[in-house]
Amino acid sequence: MKLDEVRIKDFNFGDVDGSDxxxxxxxxxxxxDEDSFYETELSKKKKFIIYGRKxxxxxxxxxxxxxxxxxxxxxxxxxxxxxxxxxxxLKEFKYDSVxxxxxxxxxRYVFLQQxxxxxxxxxxxxxxxxxxxxxxxxxxxxxxxxxxxEVQQFVNEESTEIKNxxxxxxxxxxxxxxxxxxxxxxxxxxxxSIESPYFKKYKEIETEVLxxxxxxxxxxxxxxxxxxxxxxxxxxxxFINLMISMIYGAQSLNRKIEGNSKIVLLLRSDILKLLxxxxxxxxxxxxxxxxxxxxxxxxxxxSDSPLIKMVLYKMSKxxxxxxxxxxxxxxxxxxxxxxxxxxxxxxxxxxxxxxxFFNIYKKKFPEDQKIVLKNMQRVEKEYSEWFYKExxxxxxxxxxxxxxxxxxxSISELGKYEFTYxxxxxxxxxxxxxxxxxxxxxxxxxxLGVLGIRLNTGNIEFRYRDYNIDKPVNIHTKFVVHYxxxxxxxxxxxxxxxxxxxxx
Length: 504
Known about the structure:
The chain is α/β, with parallel strands linked by helices and 504 residues long.
Protein backbone atom coordinates (compact mmCIF):
# COMPACT_ATOMS: atom_id res chain seq x y z
CA MET A 1 0.00 0.00 0.00
CA LYS A 2 1.33 3.42 -0.99
CA LEU A 3 1.58 6.04 1.75
CA ASP A 4 -0.78 8.42 -0.02
CA GLU A 5 -3.41 5.66 -0.03
CA VAL A 6 -3.21 5.01 3.71
CA ARG A 7 -6.08 6.19 5.88
CA ILE A 8 -6.32 6.33 9.67
CA LYS A 9 -8.61 3.29 9.60
CA ASP A 10 -5.65 1.23 8.30
CA PHE A 11 -3.64 1.65 11.50
CA ASN A 12 -3.71 -0.71 14.45
CA PHE A 13 -3.12 1.40 17.55
CA GLY A 14 -3.62 -1.54 19.90
CA ASP A 15 -6.30 -2.21 22.50
CA VAL A 16 -6.90 -0.61 25.89
CA ASP A 17 -7.24 -4.14 27.29
CA GLY A 18 -3.87 -5.90 27.23
CA SER A 19 -5.51 -9.34 27.37
CA ASP A 20 -7.53 -8.60 24.23
CA UNK A 21 -4.57 -7.08 22.38
CA UNK A 22 -2.45 -10.16 23.10
CA UNK A 23 -4.97 -12.25 21.11
CA UNK A 24 -4.49 -10.24 17.91
CA UNK A 25 -2.68 -12.04 15.03
CA UNK A 26 0.19 -9.51 14.79
CA UNK A 27 0.45 -8.95 18.54
CA UNK A 28 4.16 -9.78 18.82
CA UNK A 29 5.03 -7.61 15.83
CA UNK A 30 3.11 -4.66 17.27
CA UNK A 31 4.56 -4.93 20.78
CA UNK A 32 6.98 -2.12 21.62
CA ASP A 33 9.83 -2.46 24.11
CA GLU A 34 12.56 0.03 23.21
CA ASP A 35 15.94 -1.73 23.07
CA SER A 36 14.28 -4.75 24.79
CA PHE A 37 14.80 -2.97 28.11
CA TYR A 38 11.98 -4.60 30.08
CA GLU A 39 12.63 -8.04 28.60
CA THR A 40 16.28 -7.78 29.67
CA GLU A 41 15.31 -6.63 33.17
CA LEU A 42 12.90 -9.53 33.59
CA SER A 43 15.60 -12.03 32.62
CA LYS A 44 17.51 -11.12 35.80
CA LYS A 45 16.99 -13.73 38.49
CA LYS A 46 16.03 -11.34 41.30
CA LYS A 47 13.36 -9.50 39.31
CA PHE A 48 9.94 -11.00 40.02
CA ILE A 49 7.49 -8.09 40.27
CA ILE A 50 6.23 -6.05 37.30
CA TYR A 51 4.40 -2.99 38.55
CA GLY A 52 2.94 0.22 37.23
CA ARG A 53 -0.19 2.25 37.27
CA LYS A 54 -3.30 0.64 35.82
CA UNK A 55 -3.01 0.80 32.03
CA UNK A 56 0.80 0.91 31.75
CA UNK A 57 1.02 -2.43 29.93
CA UNK A 58 1.81 -5.05 32.60
CA UNK A 59 -0.43 -7.70 31.03
CA UNK A 60 0.87 -6.85 27.58
CA UNK A 61 4.51 -7.29 28.64
CA UNK A 62 3.75 -10.61 30.33
CA UNK A 63 1.83 -11.81 27.26
CA UNK A 64 4.72 -10.84 24.99
CA UNK A 65 7.31 -12.71 27.10
CA UNK A 66 4.92 -15.63 27.45
CA UNK A 67 4.50 -15.97 23.68
CA UNK A 68 8.24 -15.70 23.04
CA UNK A 69 8.99 -18.42 25.58
CA UNK A 70 6.39 -20.72 24.04
CA UNK A 71 8.37 -20.67 20.80
CA UNK A 72 11.64 -21.60 22.53
CA UNK A 73 12.16 -25.31 23.19
CA UNK A 74 14.30 -24.58 26.26
CA UNK A 75 11.65 -22.37 27.88
CA UNK A 76 8.11 -22.77 29.14
CA UNK A 77 5.66 -20.19 30.43
CA UNK A 78 2.05 -19.55 31.41
CA UNK A 79 -0.12 -16.71 32.70
CA UNK A 80 -2.38 -17.45 35.66
CA UNK A 81 -5.31 -15.06 35.71
CA UNK A 82 -7.54 -14.01 38.57
CA UNK A 83 -10.35 -16.30 37.39
CA UNK A 84 -8.08 -19.32 37.17
CA UNK A 85 -6.70 -18.59 40.61
CA UNK A 86 -10.18 -18.36 42.12
CA UNK A 87 -10.98 -21.77 40.64
CA UNK A 88 -7.88 -23.28 42.23
CA UNK A 89 -8.62 -21.61 45.54
CA LEU A 90 -12.18 -22.92 45.75
CA LYS A 91 -11.17 -26.36 44.60
CA GLU A 92 -8.45 -26.78 47.19
CA PHE A 93 -9.27 -24.67 50.23
CA LYS A 94 -11.71 -22.82 52.40
CA TYR A 95 -9.57 -19.71 52.29
CA ASP A 96 -11.68 -17.44 54.48
CA SER A 97 -10.30 -19.18 57.57
CA VAL A 98 -6.60 -19.08 56.67
CA UNK A 99 -4.47 -17.76 59.48
CA UNK A 100 -2.56 -14.59 58.64
CA UNK A 101 0.79 -16.16 59.54
CA UNK A 102 0.11 -19.11 57.24
CA UNK A 103 -0.86 -17.22 54.08
CA UNK A 104 2.68 -17.19 52.66
CA UNK A 105 2.74 -20.99 52.81
CA UNK A 106 -0.64 -21.10 51.10
CA UNK A 107 0.71 -19.01 48.22
CA ARG A 108 3.81 -21.20 47.87
CA TYR A 109 1.54 -24.22 47.63
CA VAL A 110 -0.48 -22.54 44.86
CA PHE A 111 2.76 -21.59 43.05
CA LEU A 112 3.98 -25.20 43.21
CA GLN A 113 0.69 -26.38 41.73
CA GLN A 114 1.21 -24.12 38.75
CA UNK A 115 4.78 -25.31 38.20
CA UNK A 116 3.55 -28.92 38.15
CA UNK A 117 0.79 -27.98 35.71
CA UNK A 118 3.40 -26.48 33.38
CA UNK A 119 5.70 -29.50 33.71
CA UNK A 120 2.79 -31.80 32.81
CA UNK A 121 2.63 -30.10 29.43
CA UNK A 122 6.26 -31.14 28.84
CA UNK A 123 5.14 -34.76 29.11
CA UNK A 124 2.34 -34.21 26.61
CA UNK A 125 4.76 -32.55 24.18
CA UNK A 126 7.60 -35.07 24.52
CA UNK A 127 8.29 -37.21 21.44
CA UNK A 128 7.49 -40.92 21.66
CA UNK A 129 11.17 -41.89 21.23
CA UNK A 130 12.21 -39.84 24.29
CA UNK A 131 11.66 -42.88 26.53
CA UNK A 132 13.87 -41.86 29.45
CA UNK A 133 12.51 -38.31 29.57
CA UNK A 134 8.88 -39.44 29.39
CA UNK A 135 9.44 -42.06 32.10
CA UNK A 136 11.09 -39.48 34.38
CA UNK A 137 8.30 -36.97 33.79
CA UNK A 138 5.58 -39.57 34.34
CA UNK A 139 7.12 -40.69 37.63
CA UNK A 140 7.40 -37.11 38.86
CA UNK A 141 3.86 -36.15 37.82
CA UNK A 142 2.28 -39.25 39.37
CA UNK A 143 4.12 -38.67 42.63
CA UNK A 144 3.21 -35.00 43.12
CA UNK A 145 -0.33 -35.51 41.81
CA UNK A 146 -0.88 -38.18 44.45
CA UNK A 147 0.44 -35.83 47.13
CA UNK A 148 -1.75 -32.97 45.95
CA UNK A 149 -4.79 -35.27 46.18
CA GLU A 150 -3.81 -36.22 49.72
CA VAL A 151 -3.63 -32.55 50.65
CA GLN A 152 -7.01 -31.86 49.07
CA GLN A 153 -8.57 -34.79 50.89
CA PHE A 154 -7.12 -33.57 54.17
CA VAL A 155 -8.32 -30.00 53.75
CA ASN A 156 -11.82 -31.06 52.71
CA GLU A 157 -12.15 -33.32 55.73
CA GLU A 158 -14.12 -31.30 58.25
CA SER A 159 -13.90 -33.88 61.04
CA THR A 160 -12.57 -37.35 61.63
CA GLU A 161 -13.59 -39.67 64.45
CA ILE A 162 -10.70 -40.89 66.55
CA LYS A 163 -10.56 -43.70 69.08
CA ASN A 164 -11.66 -41.70 72.11
CA UNK A 165 -14.64 -40.19 70.23
CA UNK A 166 -12.74 -36.93 69.91
CA UNK A 167 -12.77 -34.91 66.68
CA UNK A 168 -10.05 -33.43 64.54
CA UNK A 169 -11.18 -30.03 63.31
CA UNK A 170 -9.40 -29.60 60.00
CA UNK A 171 -10.50 -26.26 58.67
CA UNK A 172 -8.00 -24.23 56.68
CA UNK A 173 -6.95 -22.39 59.81
CA UNK A 174 -4.87 -25.55 60.23
CA UNK A 175 -3.14 -24.79 56.94
CA UNK A 176 0.48 -24.59 57.85
CA UNK A 177 1.36 -25.47 61.40
CA UNK A 178 -1.08 -27.34 63.58
CA UNK A 179 -4.26 -29.33 64.01
CA UNK A 180 -6.68 -28.68 66.85
CA UNK A 181 -7.51 -32.05 68.39
CA UNK A 182 -10.52 -31.85 70.69
CA UNK A 183 -11.16 -34.88 72.87
CA UNK A 184 -13.85 -35.08 75.49
CA UNK A 185 -14.39 -37.39 78.45
CA UNK A 186 -17.55 -36.71 80.44
CA UNK A 187 -17.71 -32.98 81.06
CA UNK A 188 -14.01 -32.41 80.40
CA UNK A 189 -12.68 -31.16 77.06
CA UNK A 190 -8.99 -31.12 76.19
CA UNK A 191 -7.38 -29.33 73.26
CA UNK A 192 -3.87 -30.20 72.06
CA SER A 193 -1.80 -29.09 69.07
CA ILE A 194 0.06 -31.40 66.74
CA GLU A 195 2.01 -30.70 63.53
CA SER A 196 -0.33 -30.54 60.57
CA PRO A 197 0.01 -33.33 57.97
CA TYR A 198 -0.54 -30.58 55.44
CA PHE A 199 2.67 -28.87 56.50
CA LYS A 200 4.63 -32.11 56.22
CA LYS A 201 3.11 -32.81 52.83
CA TYR A 202 3.93 -29.32 51.56
CA LYS A 203 7.62 -29.83 52.37
CA GLU A 204 7.61 -33.13 50.47
CA ILE A 205 5.97 -31.56 47.42
CA GLU A 206 8.31 -28.56 47.50
CA THR A 207 11.38 -30.81 47.65
CA GLU A 208 10.22 -32.84 44.65
CA VAL A 209 9.40 -29.78 42.54
CA LEU A 210 12.64 -27.99 43.42
CA UNK A 211 14.69 -31.09 42.60
CA UNK A 212 12.95 -31.39 39.24
CA UNK A 213 13.53 -27.73 38.37
CA UNK A 214 17.17 -28.07 39.38
CA UNK A 215 17.72 -31.05 37.08
CA UNK A 216 15.70 -29.66 34.17
CA UNK A 217 17.36 -27.83 31.30
CA UNK A 218 14.23 -25.77 30.84
CA UNK A 219 13.46 -22.33 32.27
CA UNK A 220 9.92 -21.96 33.63
CA UNK A 221 8.15 -18.61 34.09
CA UNK A 222 4.71 -18.33 35.68
CA UNK A 223 3.02 -14.92 35.61
CA UNK A 224 0.27 -14.14 38.13
CA UNK A 225 -1.95 -11.40 36.75
CA UNK A 226 -5.05 -9.54 37.97
CA UNK A 227 -4.63 -10.69 41.57
CA UNK A 228 -5.63 -7.18 42.68
CA UNK A 229 -9.19 -8.13 41.73
CA UNK A 230 -9.28 -10.26 44.87
CA UNK A 231 -10.07 -7.00 46.63
CA UNK A 232 -13.61 -7.43 45.32
CA UNK A 233 -14.06 -10.61 47.38
CA UNK A 234 -12.88 -9.52 50.85
CA UNK A 235 -12.44 -6.53 53.12
CA UNK A 236 -9.48 -4.21 52.59
CA UNK A 237 -7.37 -5.40 55.54
CA UNK A 238 -7.71 -9.05 54.50
CA PHE A 239 -6.81 -8.12 50.94
CA ILE A 240 -3.70 -6.19 52.00
CA ASN A 241 -2.49 -9.12 54.14
CA LEU A 242 -3.14 -11.47 51.23
CA MET A 243 -1.08 -9.33 48.82
CA ILE A 244 1.80 -9.00 51.30
CA SER A 245 1.87 -12.76 51.85
CA MET A 246 1.79 -13.35 48.08
CA ILE A 247 4.90 -11.18 47.62
CA TYR A 248 6.75 -12.87 50.48
CA GLY A 249 5.66 -16.31 49.27
CA ALA A 250 6.90 -15.67 45.72
CA GLN A 251 10.20 -14.24 46.95
CA SER A 252 10.73 -17.19 49.31
CA LEU A 253 10.05 -19.83 46.65
CA ASN A 254 12.06 -18.03 43.95
CA ARG A 255 15.10 -17.94 46.23
CA LYS A 256 14.92 -21.71 46.66
CA ILE A 257 14.69 -22.39 42.92
CA GLU A 258 18.09 -22.99 41.35
CA GLY A 259 18.49 -21.59 37.85
CA ASN A 260 16.34 -18.92 36.22
CA SER A 261 12.84 -20.34 36.67
CA LYS A 262 10.56 -18.17 38.78
CA ILE A 263 7.18 -16.81 39.75
CA VAL A 264 6.46 -13.31 38.38
CA LEU A 265 3.78 -11.08 39.94
CA LEU A 266 1.97 -8.32 38.02
CA LEU A 267 0.75 -5.63 40.42
CA ARG A 268 -0.71 -2.15 40.28
CA SER A 269 1.27 0.69 41.84
CA ASP A 270 -1.68 1.93 43.87
CA ILE A 271 -2.05 -1.54 45.40
CA LEU A 272 1.63 -1.64 46.36
CA LYS A 273 1.35 1.76 47.93
CA LEU A 274 -1.40 0.43 50.22
CA LEU A 275 0.99 -2.26 51.44
CA UNK A 276 3.79 0.04 52.52
CA UNK A 277 2.02 1.24 55.65
CA UNK A 278 1.10 -2.30 56.72
CA UNK A 279 4.48 -4.03 56.56
CA UNK A 280 7.78 -2.33 57.25
CA UNK A 281 9.77 -4.78 55.14
CA UNK A 282 7.53 -5.26 52.10
CA UNK A 283 9.22 -2.34 50.33
CA UNK A 284 12.49 -4.33 50.23
CA UNK A 285 11.37 -7.08 47.82
CA UNK A 286 9.48 -4.49 45.77
CA UNK A 287 12.52 -2.22 45.48
CA UNK A 288 15.05 -4.97 44.76
CA UNK A 289 12.80 -7.30 42.79
CA UNK A 290 10.51 -4.84 41.03
CA UNK A 291 10.41 -3.54 37.47
CA UNK A 292 8.40 -0.34 37.13
CA UNK A 293 6.80 0.38 33.77
CA UNK A 294 7.50 4.02 32.93
CA UNK A 295 6.43 5.66 29.68
CA UNK A 296 6.96 9.33 30.35
CA UNK A 297 10.25 11.23 30.22
CA UNK A 298 9.80 14.74 31.57
CA UNK A 299 12.86 16.13 29.79
CA UNK A 300 12.07 14.68 26.36
CA UNK A 301 10.18 16.40 23.58
CA UNK A 302 6.66 15.01 23.39
CA SER A 303 7.29 13.28 20.06
CA ASP A 304 10.46 11.66 21.46
CA SER A 305 8.80 10.19 24.55
CA PRO A 306 8.60 6.37 24.76
CA LEU A 307 4.82 6.67 24.72
CA ILE A 308 4.64 8.44 21.35
CA LYS A 309 7.40 6.22 19.93
CA MET A 310 5.22 3.25 20.87
CA VAL A 311 2.31 4.67 18.85
CA LEU A 312 4.52 5.46 15.84
CA TYR A 313 5.96 1.94 16.04
CA LYS A 314 2.48 0.36 16.00
CA MET A 315 1.49 2.54 13.06
CA SER A 316 4.62 1.56 11.16
CA LYS A 317 4.11 -2.16 11.76
CA UNK A 318 0.47 -1.86 10.70
CA UNK A 319 1.32 -0.90 7.13
CA UNK A 320 5.02 -1.59 6.47
CA UNK A 321 7.57 -3.36 8.68
CA UNK A 322 10.46 -1.41 7.19
CA UNK A 323 9.03 2.09 7.42
CA UNK A 324 11.11 4.32 9.75
CA UNK A 325 9.25 6.03 12.60
CA UNK A 326 10.39 9.37 11.23
CA UNK A 327 8.42 8.67 8.04
CA UNK A 328 5.27 7.92 10.03
CA UNK A 329 5.80 11.11 11.97
CA UNK A 330 6.30 13.21 8.83
CA UNK A 331 3.45 11.74 6.77
CA UNK A 332 0.64 11.37 9.29
CA UNK A 333 1.08 14.19 11.81
CA UNK A 334 1.45 17.97 11.70
CA UNK A 335 4.99 19.35 11.62
CA UNK A 336 4.83 20.81 15.11
CA UNK A 337 4.67 18.78 18.32
CA UNK A 338 1.42 20.46 19.39
CA UNK A 339 -0.79 17.42 18.91
CA UNK A 340 1.54 15.21 20.97
CA UNK A 341 1.70 17.74 23.80
CA UNK A 342 -2.06 18.02 23.63
CA UNK A 343 -2.55 14.27 24.05
CA UNK A 344 0.12 13.84 26.71
CA UNK A 345 -1.37 16.60 28.86
CA UNK A 346 -4.71 14.78 28.79
CA UNK A 347 -3.25 11.47 29.92
CA UNK A 348 -1.52 9.92 32.90
CA UNK A 349 1.45 9.08 30.69
CA UNK A 350 0.10 5.56 30.11
CA UNK A 351 -0.20 3.55 26.88
CA UNK A 352 -3.87 2.87 27.64
CA UNK A 353 -4.74 6.59 27.59
CA UNK A 354 -2.99 7.33 24.31
CA UNK A 355 -4.29 4.16 22.63
CA UNK A 356 -7.83 5.06 23.69
CA PHE A 357 -7.48 8.61 22.33
CA PHE A 358 -6.25 7.35 18.94
CA ASN A 359 -8.92 4.63 18.72
CA ILE A 360 -11.71 7.14 19.39
CA TYR A 361 -10.22 9.37 16.69
CA LYS A 362 -10.03 6.41 14.29
CA LYS A 363 -13.69 5.56 14.94
CA LYS A 364 -14.84 9.16 14.31
CA PHE A 365 -12.54 10.03 11.41
CA PRO A 366 -11.56 6.75 9.68
CA GLU A 367 -10.96 8.38 6.28
CA ASP A 368 -8.56 11.08 7.51
CA GLN A 369 -5.14 10.99 5.88
CA LYS A 370 -3.53 12.79 8.81
CA ILE A 371 -4.23 13.06 12.51
CA VAL A 372 -4.96 16.74 13.03
CA LEU A 373 -5.52 18.77 16.18
CA LYS A 374 -8.91 20.12 15.08
CA ASN A 375 -10.42 16.65 14.87
CA MET A 376 -8.62 15.51 18.01
CA GLN A 377 -10.39 18.31 19.88
CA ARG A 378 -13.72 17.11 18.49
CA VAL A 379 -13.32 13.68 20.10
CA GLU A 380 -11.98 14.99 23.40
CA LYS A 381 -15.37 14.91 25.16
CA GLU A 382 -15.76 11.19 24.49
CA TYR A 383 -12.17 10.58 25.57
CA SER A 384 -12.75 12.60 28.75
CA GLU A 385 -15.72 10.40 29.67
CA TRP A 386 -13.63 7.28 29.13
CA PHE A 387 -10.77 8.81 31.13
CA TYR A 388 -13.00 9.40 34.15
CA LYS A 389 -14.24 5.79 34.05
CA GLU A 390 -10.61 4.69 34.24
CA UNK A 391 -10.01 6.95 37.24
CA UNK A 392 -13.17 5.60 38.88
CA UNK A 393 -11.67 2.12 38.94
CA UNK A 394 -8.73 3.40 41.00
CA UNK A 395 -10.96 5.50 43.24
CA UNK A 396 -13.01 2.48 44.31
CA UNK A 397 -10.11 0.86 46.13
CA UNK A 398 -9.61 3.98 48.26
CA UNK A 399 -13.00 3.44 49.90
CA UNK A 400 -13.88 7.09 49.16
CA UNK A 401 -15.52 6.77 45.75
CA UNK A 402 -18.89 8.32 46.64
CA UNK A 403 -17.29 11.22 48.53
CA UNK A 404 -14.88 11.96 45.67
CA UNK A 405 -17.62 11.70 43.06
CA UNK A 406 -19.64 14.34 44.93
CA UNK A 407 -16.56 16.53 45.30
CA UNK A 408 -15.89 16.41 41.54
CA UNK A 409 -19.48 17.49 40.91
CA SER A 410 -18.88 20.48 43.21
CA ILE A 411 -15.67 21.32 41.32
CA SER A 412 -17.63 21.11 38.06
CA GLU A 413 -20.29 23.47 39.44
CA LEU A 414 -17.56 25.85 40.59
CA GLY A 415 -16.46 25.95 36.93
CA LYS A 416 -12.85 26.96 37.58
CA TYR A 417 -9.85 25.07 36.25
CA GLU A 418 -7.81 26.50 39.14
CA PHE A 419 -8.98 27.10 42.70
CA THR A 420 -7.88 27.23 46.33
CA TYR A 421 -9.16 25.28 49.29
CA UNK A 422 -10.93 28.33 50.71
CA UNK A 423 -12.63 29.17 47.41
CA UNK A 424 -14.03 25.65 47.06
CA UNK A 425 -14.88 25.42 50.78
CA UNK A 426 -16.93 28.62 50.68
CA UNK A 427 -18.65 27.54 47.46
CA UNK A 428 -19.68 24.19 48.95
CA UNK A 429 -20.79 25.76 52.23
CA UNK A 430 -23.19 28.05 50.39
CA UNK A 431 -24.70 24.98 48.73
CA UNK A 432 -24.81 23.08 52.01
CA UNK A 433 -22.24 20.58 50.79
CA UNK A 434 -20.31 18.31 53.17
CA UNK A 435 -16.85 19.84 53.77
CA UNK A 436 -15.76 17.69 56.74
CA UNK A 437 -13.12 15.77 54.76
CA UNK A 438 -12.46 18.34 52.05
CA UNK A 439 -8.69 18.67 52.51
CA UNK A 440 -8.28 14.89 52.83
CA UNK A 441 -10.23 14.31 49.60
CA UNK A 442 -8.32 17.03 47.73
CA UNK A 443 -5.07 15.39 48.86
CA UNK A 444 -6.32 12.05 47.53
CA UNK A 445 -7.15 13.60 44.14
CA UNK A 446 -3.65 15.12 43.96
CA UNK A 447 -2.11 11.72 44.75
CA LEU A 448 -4.15 10.12 41.97
CA GLY A 449 -3.24 12.86 39.49
CA VAL A 450 -6.82 14.10 39.10
CA LEU A 451 -5.71 17.47 40.47
CA GLY A 452 -2.38 19.18 39.96
CA ILE A 453 -0.62 21.83 42.02
CA ARG A 454 0.36 25.32 40.89
CA LEU A 455 3.89 25.87 42.18
CA ASN A 456 5.33 29.21 43.27
CA THR A 457 7.34 29.22 40.04
CA GLY A 458 4.09 29.27 38.06
CA ASN A 459 4.57 25.71 36.82
CA ILE A 460 1.74 23.20 37.12
CA GLU A 461 2.76 19.83 38.49
CA PHE A 462 0.69 16.66 38.15
CA ARG A 463 1.58 13.37 39.81
CA TYR A 464 1.11 10.30 37.65
CA ARG A 465 3.87 8.13 39.05
CA ASP A 466 3.08 6.60 42.40
CA TYR A 467 6.49 6.59 44.03
CA ASN A 468 7.55 10.21 43.88
CA ILE A 469 7.73 12.21 47.06
CA ASP A 470 4.32 13.69 47.80
CA LYS A 471 4.17 17.45 47.55
CA PRO A 472 2.56 18.92 50.68
CA VAL A 473 -1.10 19.82 50.30
CA ASN A 474 -2.62 22.37 52.65
CA ILE A 475 -5.29 25.08 52.78
CA HIS A 476 -3.02 27.45 50.82
CA THR A 477 -2.40 25.06 47.90
CA LYS A 478 -3.53 26.16 44.44
CA PHE A 479 -5.25 23.20 42.80
CA VAL A 480 -5.50 22.69 39.02
CA VAL A 481 -7.94 20.31 37.33
CA HIS A 482 -6.34 17.69 35.07
CA TYR A 483 -6.72 18.57 31.37
CA UNK A 484 -8.18 15.17 30.56
CA UNK A 485 -11.20 15.84 32.78
CA UNK A 486 -12.04 19.42 31.88
CA UNK A 487 -14.38 18.57 29.00
CA UNK A 488 -16.29 16.15 31.20
CA UNK A 489 -16.55 18.66 34.03
CA UNK A 490 -17.43 21.49 31.60
CA UNK A 491 -14.52 23.62 32.78
CA UNK A 492 -13.22 26.35 30.46
CA UNK A 493 -9.80 26.19 28.80
CA UNK A 494 -9.86 29.83 27.62
CA UNK A 495 -7.68 31.37 30.29
CA UNK A 496 -5.16 28.56 30.46
CA UNK A 497 -2.89 27.97 27.48
CA UNK A 498 -1.39 24.73 28.86
CA UNK A 499 2.12 26.10 29.26
CA UNK A 500 4.44 25.28 32.14
CA UNK A 501 3.04 21.81 32.75
CA UNK A 502 5.39 19.35 34.43
CA UNK A 503 4.71 15.74 35.32
CA UNK A 504 6.48 13.79 38.03
